[in-house]
Structure formats: structure tokens, C-alpha cells
From TrEMBL:
GO terms for molecular function: isomerase activity. It comes from the Bacteria. Residues 1-18 form the signal peptide. Residues 51-155 form the DUF4440 domain. This is Ketosteroid isomerase homolog. The lineage of its organism: Bacteria, Pseudomonadati, Bacteroidota, Flavobacteriia, Flavobacteriales. Keywords: Isomerase, Signal.
Amino acid sequence: MKVIISLAVLLFTLTACQSDKNKKQVNSTTLNSTTMENKTAKTEIEKSLGIYFDALNKSNVEQAVHQYTSDGIFMPTGLPTAAGTSELTTAYENVFKAIQLNVTFRVEEIILSDSIAFVRTQSNGTQLIHANNQKTDELNREFFLMKNENGSWKISRYMFNQPK
């Protein structure tokens, strides 16, 4: 009887170990899949922001606004908040009438959660002030709330400030 009980315990233990091994393989596959999805999403977010910063450097209103969701919000330092495509268009027209940017950006952090991402960047370069033709250094910290809208990562909310 002891032998039968011992064999039953051994069989149960082996079955449990095999089950744990299978679970680990499934969890590892899920983790690898999620990691790949996150890498792809981060690459797409960086590409979208690259297009946006390119638009800033070209003073291209249409390209800048196109990087926003339809209900996107722009909260520039010292200026009114712009919400929605019409207000965004007006805001960027006014910004580009006032200055010409020549900046590069660096992504400092991306935090993903499903179809939402929080992105922190820093941009550095120069701006040309059209009113007096003066060129000044430009350094900003930016915060973006990105949203995956119809398969594309777009800016949902954006604000920035100068660290100095």
C-alpha cells in the first residue's frame, strides 16, 4: 500500500512539475510577444514624433496638425490652449508666423498602456524670432500623451516648458 501511495505522490508531483513547465513556456511566449509589441509601438511613436518635429522645423502647419488626434490639445507655455483641429491649425499658424524653429529632439521616456502612451522628450536647437530677426537658443522639455487611433500613434495632448 505504501508503494502505491508513493507512486501516486510521485506521479502527481511529476504532473504538477510538467504543468508548471508548460505554464512557464506559455508565460514566456506571452512575455516575448508583449515585448515585441511594445518595441514596435515605441518605434512607431518615435516615428510619429519625428514627423511632428520635422513639421516644426519646416513651419508646416498641415503636417504638425496631422500628427494630432481629431480631439488633440496643444498647451503651449504662455499661450492659450488649442483644442481640436481648427484651433490647432490657428495656433500653429500663429506660432510659425512668430518663429522659425531648428531643433532636434530626444525621447527620454515612453510608458505604454494598451492604446495610450506617455512620452517625455527634450528638444534642443535654435529659434529665429521673425519680429526682430534675432536667433536664440531653444531648449524645451516636452510631455506628450499619445493615442493609437486607427492603427496610427497620434498626439492626443501636448505641453512643454523651458527648464531655465
